[in-house]
Amino acid sequence: MRGRAAIPVDPPRELTALAARARAAHLAVLASACWPESTADQIPPPLPGFVSSSFSPIVAEVAKRALRRVPQRGPEVVTAVVVVSALGDVASAAQVAEAVDTGGRVWPLMFFQSVPNAVAGHVAARRALTGPIVSVCAPEAGIEVAALLLEDGDADEVLVAEVDLEPADGAGARGAAVLLGLRARSGLGGAA
Amino acid sequence: MTEPVELSAPAGPSGPPGVARGSEQVELTGMAVTSAFGRGLEPLLAGALEGRAAFGPVRRFDVAGRRAQVAAALPGAPALSGELARVIDEACDGAGLGAAARAACPLFLAVHGDPDLGRAAPDERAEHTGDAFAARLARRTGLSDAVRVYTSACVAASSAVADAGAMIAHGRAARVVVAAGYLVEPDQFALFDAGRALALDGRVRPFSAGRSGLLLGDGVAAVVLESASAARRRRVPALARLAGWGRAGDGYHVCRPRPDGSGLARAISAALCRGGIGAAAVGYVNAHGSGTRHSDTAEAAALYGALGEHAAEVPVSSTKSVHGQALEAGGLLELVVSVGALRAGRLPVNAGHLGPDEACRLNLILHRAGRPAGAYALSLNVAFGGANTALLVGTP
């Protein structure tokens, strides 16, 4: 896209759906982000330590964007990270299966990126987020888990990040993230 | 379903700020398990109480070219879906759940994913989502199609139990079946081998001098969690109470634990707070105890952080030393072992011990016939991403 201005694109339906589910669950959407957001979003920024798949880079990018859209929190605000993915990192899973079946090499870096928790831990470490880390397969589950964590007091805010490497519409890998809080606490800052 | 009831944590020891729980008590009314020791709790508990490890050469698939050659696996190549269906049926039967009760009961499933996903043709992958796998399992076992799948690595099952407990306590569900499964297979074996995480001496030695890593093990388990009032109405006795739960993150590293164990300590404190008990009432800790150098040291620090000097006295063992690391299913396998031990009044041995490690000053159960020092047991799990969970179970 060099030399051309980035043109905003419609947010993926995953973002709209996450935000709608969150509001239906009486949660406040404090910030949101997605991938892609504009025509400049072609390849997600590489993530040191993660290889061969855009799964973790997309989670990290939508998380970073959402968290940047609210004022920096102090350590007293406990934020959980919930990763939602129907298939997980299917690109990495297929590569490992092929390597195993053909006698190819399984790279050591693939070890930790084989679980979605790993990139959640990356996001948490970058922003010193000390709430629970959870990975689930469906957006409904992600929002329900977020609501429970908030209600139970294990988190003050929950970042829910969804990624789909192979959307059924064939439109290419995409991701969405919402930062959620209890409605009474929505005054902590930010809005979407 | 009953109306949600919000209640602050019970009076008692203070936990992390803001910790709350609903007012319903949560009971475990059915459970079933399969491990490398065979089907059922009896052979697993016998192995754990005797400190008899189930590790042996891997014969299920080719491990030529791998550094490690050992796991704790059942003979043959059982199918995960079939083993999950069997434990779910057995747990539901044990809890006295008929067809109508099953049909209204949600399934929370902890798995790495559909085992066939990695080898599915690209245009067939949509049939192999975790939810599709769980939905087929729910249909097969007569459970509700309200499934939820947890893939949070080694805290997947314990997170599912914590969430089921929270839902029931808040009155959002009367009953939830939590199931989890991992059967040793070539892909994760290759990944853990490549990551140099597997013990090359063929034993898991939690908290011991000379420990060198983990070993994978089969684990398939199911429990029925139920509100005490629902169980009372059905006149079903509780096997145990799920008294408390806690989840917290490290915010530290992609795969290394925070060395001071403060994330796990917060999870433990939250579980005790929800249970309304102090540290002295904890009579047994089923530790995560992976047998890896940094993780065991951080877990020992976490126990001191949460339990104070009681950490030096409370009996501790990691049953991974006999049944191995069941990954996404580990938390449920170990919860079932903990409940079995509390009910038997005898505690599992921390097998494979070579000698003390000064960084892990714990009261490890090194001999047979250890006895609980209180009515409650803690089952701890940690995972990649700095995820930590603590489940607190008590005798009924």
TrEMBL record, chain A:
Database matches in Gene3D superfamilies: 3.40.47.10
Molecular function terms from GO: acyltransferase activity
Highest rank taxon of the organism: Bacteria
A Pfam family assignment: Ketoacyl-synt_2
Stretches assigned to the Beta-ketoacyl synthase-like N-terminal domain: 77-164
Protein known as: Beta-ketoacyl synthase chain length factor
Annotated source species: Actinospica durhamensis
UniProtKB/TrEMBL annotation, chain B:
Entry-linked InterPro entries: Beta-ketoacyl_synthase, Ketoacyl_synth_C, Ketoacyl_synth_N, PKS_Beta-ketoAc_synthase_dom, Thiolase-like
Residue ranges, compositional bias (Low complexity): 8-20
GO molecular function, one term: 3-oxoacyl-[acyl-carrier-protein] synthase activity
Superkingdom assignment: Bacteria
Keywords linked to the UniProt accession: Transferase
Residue ranges of every copy of the Ketosynthase family 3 (KS3) domain listed in the record: 23-395
Region (Disordered): 1-20
Transmembrane parts of this sequence: none
Gene Ontology BP terms: fatty acid biosynthetic process
Pfam families hit by this protein: ketoacyl-synt, Ketoacyl-synt_C
Key word ATP-binding present: no
Gene3D superfamilies: 3.40.47.10
Family: Belongs to the thiolase-like superfamily. Beta-ketoacyl-ACP synthases family.
Protein name: Beta-ketoacyl-[acyl-carrier-protein] synthase family protein
